[in-house]
Amino acid sequence: MKKISLAEPNIVDKEWLYLKECLNTGWVSSSGSFVKRFEESVSKITEIKHSTAVVNGTSALHLSLLILGIKEGDEVLVPSLTFVAPINAIRYLGASPVFLDCNEHHTLDITKTLDFLENETRMKGKICYNKKSKRKITAILPVHTWGNPVEVSKLKKICRSKHIKIIEDASESLGSLYLNTKGTLVHTGMISDMACLSFNGNKIVTSGGGGMILTNYKTYSKLAKYYSTQAKDDPFYYKHNAIGFNYRLTNIQAALGLAQIEYLSDFKKKKKTIYDLYREGFKDIPGLEILLPPENTKPNYWMTVLRVNKKIFGFSRDHIIKRLLNKGVQCRPVWYPNHLQKPFRNFQSYRVTRTQQEVKKCICLPSSTHLLKD
C-alpha cells in the first residue's frame, strides 16, 4: 500500500549542490557563509530588516521573549489553539500565559482580544496590569496558524498605548501576506517588535530543523546574535557578562535552507493548487468543508484543514481519521487546547469557547508539495 504523508519535505536539486559546496568548505558548524546568505534571503523575502538564524522555532520564541524583557511573574497573551512551543517558551522565563480564543480561521480572535485589553486591564504609569490576576502584562504572542495571517495591525495601537510588546509566531507562515490597516500588503512579522519562523521538516521550507528571529530593530538583532552564541563578550578569552545559549543554526543546515527558500514561490503555488483541489473535492459533500483563509490575506496554504459536522455528515472526526489512517493516508487532529493541558490548566483563559469546538471537528489533511492530483 502506498502511503501518503501529511507534510513531507520536497527536496529538489539545488539542495545537493549547496550541501556539497558547504561540505567542501569544511565549515559545517555555526560559522560559515551559508548562515549569512540564508539570513539575508529571509530578510529579502519578508522585507524585515534583520534575521538571525537559530536551531529551531522554539529557541527563536524563547530568545525573543527574553530580549523583549519578559520576566518571571509577567503575563503573556497567547492563543490556546497552537502548537505548544510558544507556551513552553513563555514558561521557560517563569512568565504566565493568559489564553485567548480563536476565530473561524483558527487564528487569534481579534474581537475578544481587544475586549480583554480594553475591559480586563488597567494602566498604572506605563505598566499594564491584568485586573483579575493583578500581574503585569508585558507581551502578546499571536500565531499565524496553518499559514493564515492574524490581523496584527489591529492590535498595534492598543498594545502601544499599553506598552505591550508584540511577538509574532510566524513559524507556519513564511510567504504569507495580509493587508494592514493602511491597505498595504505586508509579510507576517513585519509590524511587530519581533517575529519567529520555523524550518522544521514539515514546514513549507525546511533546513532539517532550524528557526529565524526577525525584527526591524537593530538593537534586538544584535541581542539575538549575542544570546544565541553563548553571550560571548570576548570570544578569544572566553569572557561572558550574561547567560547565553547554544542556539545558532549550523552552516550545513543553512545550506539546505537556502536552497529550499529559492523554491518558495513554486512551493506556494503547489500548496495553493492542493488547497483548491480539496475545496473542489469537498464542495458538494454536506457536513464537510475546507477551512477558509481570512479575507484580505494571501496565505501560503501551508496546511489544509477539513472541518467535519458530524450531525450533517453522519460520521465523526475520529471515525474519518481512523478510516484515512487505515488506507495509508496520514492525517491528524488539530492540537489539543493548551488551556486544558495538564501543565497549564491553572492559568487564566479568557472567553475560550470556539477553540474546543474547532478541535473536536477538524482534521489536518495531507499537504505535501509533491502530492499528485490522482
UniProtKB/TrEMBL annotation:
One of the GO BP terms on file: polysaccharide biosynthetic process
Stored PANTHER family: BLR5990 PROTEIN (PTHR30244:SF30), TRANSAMINASE (PTHR30244)
Pfam families cross-referenced by the UniProt entry: DegT_DnrJ_EryC1
GO function terms (MF aspect): pyridoxal phosphate binding; transaminase activity
NCBIfam families xrefs: NHT_00031
Protein name per UniProt: Aminotransferase DegT
Organism: marine metagenome
